[in-house]
From TrEMBL:
Domain N-acetyltransferase, residue spans: 2-158
Pfam families: Acetyltransf_17 (PF17668), Acetyltransf_9 (PF13527), SCP2_2 (PF13530)
SUPFAM superfamilies with a match to the protein in the record: Acyl-CoA N-acyltransferases (Nat) (SSF55729), SCP-like (SSF55718)
Cross-referenced Gene3D superfamilies: 3.40.630.30, SCP2 sterol-binding domain
Protein name: Acetyltransferase
Organism field: Clostridium punense
Length: 418
């Protein structure tokens, strides 16, 4: 068993950096100068950001692993709930396959359960590892690779501008308005936008009208793989827009880059973005089964885990589960958290859910906690889980009723990296 505690000394942070950089060589931090800068950045975050803390796992006096914990607020079905986030899970190379990572994740889950959170989230280094620990898949990411001229050209880009560091609050205001009405988004604060605007590699383009930002994206240039300095792509991140006017002008701006930019690369949790395009092909010329043109590549990332099912339904007491009236016995299989394993009776009356002590119910549904976590966030439909044998229901005539209960217009979106 490891002792897991918050980092506090300079030695703690130096040891953490060594473990972290060995675990993530893709960060390509190799020089002493870069390593010191990395150390300076994380200690600054630890001291100045009250929502982020670093922890180490110790075997006697030696650090054998570490992690970063985030105190988030997430929009779940239009309700702001506390959520724990896990990042930088790292294990010393000398202590691999000693279940250090499992102990770290166990501590993380219990930490937020003790704080009263009902859900935790993370980005997996290995999805299968976390799936076994009860984490369910979130919305997939689609990467679109589009020639600028294939993006729609509107009638104007008069309201498009670069955003400067002193305008960070305008981006925050725009994001916050979208956050309040978007399932899955995590609340952000101004320092996050300031950090991006101070990054020399990142640039921010916005649709700004009457000094109000109604849409924006960050981008960076990516050089051609063959070293041709005249061939560059634009990689778009965090595309946000509040209305079609903002979207139109942002797309018109990107369309106008065709003389300098080879491809616009957009990473979006939206499989329907292709309907905006006349030609959604990604330039690979790949075709399969038998006449389907490759238009995007897809990846799985963000994962959700319910750690207190009863607590989550209490947090969602004001949510309308689509006006359904039904009494559901929900049986959750959770081999990792014993007090989250078992059944509860949920009475839905005209969409409002309350927990019941009576054992009377219309239908029983049995799910693994990982699949329930995906279902309650609306990352997947109940009909899909049932179709693929991931959900058991006592009465098949209730399949569509249960599907309606756990449905919303859009899958959850997460634009926060941690």
């Amino acid at each position: 068993m490891c002792l897991i505690r918050k980092l506090w000394s300079d030695l703690d942070f130096r040891d953490f950096v060594e473990i972290d950089l060995n675990a993530y060589p893709g960060l390509k931090i190799n020089s002493i100068e870069d390593k010191n800068k990395f150390l300076e950045n994380i200690t600054k975050v630890h001291k100045e950001n009250p929502y982020v803390k670093f922890y180490g796992a110790f075997n006697e006096d030696f650090m054998v692993g570490g992690m970063r914990l985030h105190d988030f607020k997430m929009n779940l079905l239009s309700h702001k709930i506390p959520v724990g986030g896990l990042g930088s899970v790292a294990v010393d190379l000398l202590h691999k396959k000693e279940k250090v990572a499992k102990e770290i994740v166990t501590y993380f889950i219990q930490h937020y359960k003790n704080l009263g959170a009902s859900m935790v989230i993370l980005y997996p280094f290995r999805p299968d590892f976390y799936k076994k620990m009860g984490f369910g898949f979130g919305t997939s990411m689609n990467q679109y690779k589009i020639k600028p001229g294939n993006l729609p050209k509107g009638t104007s880009k008069n309201n498009i501008c670069f955003i400067k560091e002193e305008e960070a609050s305008l981006l925050l205001d725009c994001y916050t308005r979208v956050f309040k009405k978007t399932n899955g988004l995590i609340e952000k604060y101004e320092p996050e936008f300031l950090g991006k605007l101070r990054n020399p590699k990142l640039k921010a383009i916005a649709y700004k009208k009457n000094n109000v930002v109604q849409g924006y994206f960050f981008f960076e240039f990516k050089s051609s793989e063959d070293g041709n300095f005249l061939l560059n792509d634009m990689v778009i991140s965090e595309l946000i827009f509040e209305n079609t006017s903002a979207l139109s002008e942002l797309m018109t701006f990107l369309n106008s880059q065709s003389d300098q930019i080879r491809y616009i690369i957009l990473n979006l949790q939206d499989e329907n973005f292709r309907f905006l395009l006349d030609d959604p092909r990604n330039g690979s010329d790949n075709m399969f089964t038998p006449v389907y043109h490759e238009s995007s590549i897809q990846g799985t990332g963000i994962m959700y885990r319910v750690i207190n099912t009863k607590g989550l339904f209490k947090e969602l007491k004001d949510h309308n589960f689509n006006d359904v009236t039904c009494t559901l016995k929900l049986t959750i299989k959770d081999n990792f958290l014993s007090d989250n394993n078992g059944s509860l009776i949920i009475k839905f009356e005209e969409g409002k859910a309350t927990l019941s002590n009576k054992n009377d119910f219309d239908v029983e549904v049995t799910l693994d906690v990982a699949d329930f976590s995906s279902l309650i966030t609306c990352s997947v439909s109940f009909t899909s889980l049932y179709k693929y044998g991931k959900a058991v229901i006592s009465n098949k005539t209730y399949v569509n009723t249960i599907n309606k209960i756990f449905s919303t217009d859009e899958k959850p979106i997460c634009l926060s990296q941690f």
